[in-house]
Amino acid sequence: ARLARALVTAGSIGTLATVYPFNESSPLSGHPFALMEYYAPCYLNGSLSFVLMGISKNAHHILASPTHAASITVQAPLSHSPVTKPRVALVGSVTVLGNDTAHADIQDIEECYLDRHPDSKFWLPGKSGFSDASWARFDPSAIYYVGGFGGQHFIGDIPLDLYQRSGGGVPPRNSALRSPLRIQHAQLASVEY
Predict the structure, then answer these.
(1) In a domain, 53, yes or no
(2) Looking at beta carbons, which pairs linking 190-193 to residues 24 or more positions away fall under 8 Å?
(3) Among 74, 166, 176, 180, which one has the highest count of C-beta atoms within 10 angstroms of its own C-beta?
(4) Tens-of-pLDDT digits for all 193 residues of the chain?
(5) Signal peptide span per the entry (predicted)?
(6) DSSP string covering 60-110
């Protein structure tokens, strides 16, 4: 669980997968769809922060799903033999953070996200005319980890509670944050795989 959590925490780009919503006239109904997506590991329990954009097909699929279902796959940096490196798939649901989210929490999320993706400052929610951008939180409900290739590495499901408890880095500067999903502010040192 610690290795899976370290992999997700050290990264900031994954492959977000969703499913085309059911539509009798669409030949793609029920088919999977996946694209690269920025994320930031801003929560101590392993939840992730995203920016949902109205133009994004993944955002459309998430919002059309009654459960707001999605999955994200994160892998170790590519090498000459990527199948020997670890990767993890998180399956869960997405919550769009609305106006009821505390202003201080949104500021913490924005700071965390910008630490990982400084280029995103131009399209963050509420910035520069992107009225269809929203902050979102991905909450994993299942974790599948592949430690590498062959029988030498763990391959299988990781219990959610173990993943959530395994930590992901440095505690936030402000340990008095209101939410049990405390925001991580510090970037982690790189993890060697």
Answers:
(1) yes
(2) 190/10, 191/6, 191/7, 191/9, 191/10, 193/7, 193/76, 193/77, 193/85, 193/86
(3) 74
(4) 999 999 999 999 999 999 999 887 889 999 999 999 999 999 999 999 999 998 999 999 999 999 999 999 999 887 777 888 899 999 999 999 986 778 888 899 999 999 999 999 988 987 766 678 999 999 999 999 999 877 778 999 999 999 999 976 444 444 333 344 444 333 333 334 3
(5) none
(6) HHHHHSTT-EEEEEEEPPP-S-GGGS-EEEEEEEEEE--TTS-HHHHHHHH
- Which residue bears the tokens 């910035």? 127
- pTM score, whole prediction: 0.83
CATH number of the structural domain spanning residue 59: 2.30.110.10
Give me the number of domains the chain comprises.
1
Residue pair 171/34 in contact by the 8 Å Cβ criterion: no
CA distance 176 to 107: 15
Angle among Cα 180, 181, 186 to the nearest 5 degrees reads 125
